[in-house]
Amino acid sequence: MTMRPLILLCLIIIIGISVRIDLSAGTIPEQQTQSKQHLNTAENTDHNNENTLFYQEVIVEENQSVYSIVQQLHPSDTFALSVEQVLTDFEVLNPGVVPYQLSAGNAYKFPVYREMDNE
Q: Does the structure show a pLDDT above 50 at 5?
């Protein structure tokens, strides 16, 4: 009879550890088909070298927007760039492409923003 509480305690501990690992690190792989590869760069020729844009090419899926894809590329919870800034940078990287009319299955260049080292 004294083994039953011990076995129950061990089972609760194992389940607790499993749930914690699953919630923090996760066990399901990301749905994004492209892993983060090296970042490409594009320089805006109208401005100086401080305006170098880093980008990653992503194949767009149904019901994705420019802003939602850029948010997925930045897993940080503190992504706080304005929609206007993201759309402007997208247009610089993809001349002639209307950001509101993305076609599923096509690859586009999406801006990747570096975190500021000074903060």
A: yes
Ordered strands of the 107-112 beta sheet: 40-43, 52-59, 107-112
Predicted model pTM: 0.56
Report pLDDT for 76: 72
Total H helices, total E strands in the chain: 3, 3
Residue with tokens 């305690």: 9
Q: Which two tokens stand for residue 50?
A: 């401080």
Looking at the chain, which runs of residues are DSSP E strands?
40-43, 52-59, 107-112
What is the number of other CB atoms lying within 10 angstroms of the CB of residue 93? 20
Query: What are the angstrom distances between the C-alpha of 77 and each of 28, 70, 74?
Result: 20, 13, 8
Cα–Cα dist 108/31, whole Å: 18
Confidence bin at 44 (pLDDT 50/70/90): very low
